[in-house]
Amino acid sequence: MKQTKRILGIDYGEKRIGIAVSDPMKIIAKGIKVIENSANALREIQHIAMEYDVEIIVVGMPFNLKGERGTMAKEVEVFIDKLKGSTGLEIVTWDERFTSHTAHETLRTMGVKKKQRQEKSQIDLMASALILQGYLDANES
Question: Does any domain span residue 1?
Answer without folding.
Answer: no
